[in-house]
Amino acid sequence: MKRFKYITVAALAVAILFSCSKKDDDKPTPPPTPPIPTLKTVAEAKVSNYTVRLQNTSGTFVMGYNDITLSVTDATNKEVTLEAATFTPWMDMYKSDGKGGFTKDIMHTHTCPHTALTKEGNVWKSQALFQMITAPSGVWFGKVTFKVAGKEQTLDRLDFVVKPQTNKALGKVGRFRVFTPGGNPKGQMHLYALVAPENPKSGENEVALGIWKMENMKNFPKVTDWVVEVKVSEKGSTTALSTTTLRYERNFYRGKVSYPKAGEYTLTYTLKDAQGQVIQPKDSDKKDISIATMIQF
Length: 297
Known about the structure:
With 297 residues, the protein is mainly β. The chain is built from one helix and 20 strands. The protein has two domains: 40-163, Immunoglobulin-like (Sandwich); 174-296, Immunoglobulin-like (Sandwich). It is globular and about 60 Å long. The protein starts with a helix and ends with a strand.
């Protein structure tokens, strides 16, 4: 009888163990935590006892849309907590030397479309659309201010280089002018750039297009009240493979387009105002132009 009891108890223990194990197996596996991207320094400079760094995941700024992270460390290379911070990108444009080159005399200085630094956790981030590359005609730099322990610090010049865009899936930054009765006789300059997807695929993709108005050398507000119709065609063809309408949401004009396969495509844009009237892009000579982004993936 004792032996029977021992066998019964052992069997019951095994059953309970198996049941618990099965319940544990039935629990959903938590999603993996996405890895924290490693940041690389694009440029750095010192002010007082601090080192100021501009960083992103590639270690390079390109002509186009860029993510920017501001990092400040003390004399021991320890990250400091910033109470406030600003970053403004600028480009010095040089005068011509009359011989096809450029002097080092500054003709004018302009900024570019960019967002104010915002704090995400303990990280300060910004985005900027660099519309030109660093060249003999001009160079980029940033002005940075930050506050540590109640004291303001200013770095008037942090030089950095902007290189050509290497991601062919995003194409190039484009320009156009809009002429309106009674408006600027030279037309209102605008910039546009495809900012997503960085890695398109065959089939359906959500695209994001940015459009900015150049009010003056310092201000590049986003255009938010238009509608953009997109025609997708293969390179060298005018036949539409697909069409869609992009509407402004989450900071960009967004919509879904389809690519039948990997290849080279042209995204041609038709601009309309809030009333549905077509806005005709023009060049500096007031000639009608077509605006588009050519991509390859």
